[in-house]
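Field reference: sequence -> structure
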Amino acid sequence: NMAATLEKLDQKQEALSLFQTVFDKRRNLLGENHPLTVTAMSNLAAVFFDLDQYEKALELQTQVLEKSKKIYEENQYDVIIAMTSLATTLDHLKRYNESSALYREILAKRQSTSGEDHPETIRIMTKLAAALLETEHFEESVALFRTILAKRQKLKGEDHTDTITAIKNLA
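Structure field:
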């Protein structure tokens, strides 16, 4: 797909134009709530995010999440991804109370669908711990960082870069 290739080549403005065209055409042909239209909206939001236009990304990601919840089951991958994108944008906007609440939901879904030790579950744990740190929930943040470190040591070993990063985060 040319728009995705342009984005990877760091030609984001041109990619934005193409992603906008795809979204507009899908919306006109398939309707607002069609899964392909929602995917196009998500792609457009991702380019806005990459361009540091977080408010525009947030607006679209909020719609993507609402529509995804109507299209898919609550714990389905597409819903979890939409939630994660939205929480990440909230982090960039320094809206940590909102992002941490969303990360809690995502973590519960990841734990039930992927398991406690899945890399994505641990990644969300890390994002939650960081957001909690920003909201000065230090004890809970440190407890999560300790859990993450223990999981990384068990799963990856002492000398793996993920384990070293977990040690740094705890420090």
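Note: The CA atoms of residues 38 and 64 lie 6 Å apart.
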